[in-house]
Each structure stands twice: as structure tokens, then as C-alpha cells.
């Protein structure tokens, strides 16, 4: 299973993703492509994301049962911790102004 979530990306990228995957909500795509197609899709996201951001998660043989990658500016960033990939949150712009 593959899940991709995109925010603030151009319509042409959303259309390209809809060719390979099912858009179940605005900006949320699911499917079961091969590893080769998954890598090709991620390449397309990297080329067409512009100022938006994306996350792609898929089932795999790891301790957690999945893996994921991110692209673009976002408060959530992947962090490797003792062999597990976790998510760290950066402070929001508002929180930085207060500190």
C-alpha cells in the first residue's frame, strides 16, 4: 500500500498523480504500485512540487511495517532514532516569535 499527501502543489502535479493513484480526498492519493513505479512517482513529485510539500508512506519489511519520505518545507521532519523513523516537529513561526 502506498499513500501520498500533497499540499500547495500545482494542479498539473495533482493530475499526474491521479494517473497512477486514486485520489480519495483532496491531495490524498492511495494505490499499490511496484517499487519502480513508486520511485518514478517520487521523482515526479520532486520535479513538480514547486513551493508545496509532500509525504509518501508505503508498506515495507521494517520494524514499524512502513517507511516514508518527505519533500518541501513542513514543520514535520523525519528523524532516525534507534533504527525507527519518527517525526519531529519544528517550532511554528508564532512560537519562534514568542521565544
Secondary-structure map with pairings?
Layout: E1 2-7, H1 11-20, E2 22-25, E3 28-31, H2 35-48, E4 53-59, E5 66-71, E6 76-81, E7 84-89, H3 93-98
Antiparallel strand pairs: 1-3, 1-4, 2-3, 4-5, 6-7
Helix pairs in contact: 1-2
What this model shows, in words?
This protein has one domain (2-72): Alpha-Beta Plaits (2-Layer Sandwich). It is α+β, with helices and mostly antiparallel strands. Helix 1 (11-20) packs antiparallel against helix 2 (35-48). It is built from three helices and seven strands.
Index terms:
3 helices; alpha+beta; Alpha-Beta Plaits; 99 residues; five-stranded antiparallel β-sheet
In percent terms, what proportion of residues is strand?
35-45%
Structural class: alpha+beta
| Count of strand segments | 7
End-to-end separation? 41 Å
- H/E element order: EHEEHEEEEH
The helix content, as a percent range, equals 25-40%
Write down the domain tally. Answer: 1
Task: Give the count of helical stretches.
Answer: 3
CATH topology: Alpha-Beta Plaits
Biggest beta sheet summary? 5 strands, antiparallel
* Named CATH architecture: 2-Layer Sandwich
Strand order of the largest sheet: 2-3-1-4-5
Look at the structure and give the mean pLDDT. 89
Choose one word for the global shape: globular
Q: Low-confidence runs (pLDDT<50, min 5 residues)?
A: none
What is the C-level CATH assignment? Alpha Beta
**Rg, nearest Å:** 15 Å
Provide a short characterization of the protein structure.
With 99 residues, this protein is α+β, with helices and mostly antiparallel strands.
Amino acid at each position: 500500500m502506498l499513500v501520498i499527501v500533497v499540499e500547495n502543489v500545482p494542479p498539473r502535479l495533482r493530475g499526474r498523480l491521479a494517473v497512477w493513484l486514486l485520489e480519495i480526498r483532496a491531495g490524498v492519493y492511495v494505490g499499490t504500485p511496484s517499487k519502480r513505479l513508486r520511485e518514478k512517482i517520487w521523482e515526479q513529485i520532486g520535479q513538480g512540487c514547486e513551493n508545496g510539500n509532500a509525504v509518501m508512506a508505503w508498506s515495507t519489511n521494517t520494524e514499524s511495517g512502513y517507511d516514508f519520505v518527505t519533500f518541501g518545507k513542513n514543520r514535520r521532519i523525519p528523524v532516525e532514532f534507534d533504527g525507527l523513523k519518527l517525526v519531529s516537529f519544528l517550532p511554528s513561526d508564532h512560537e519562534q516569535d514568542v521565544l
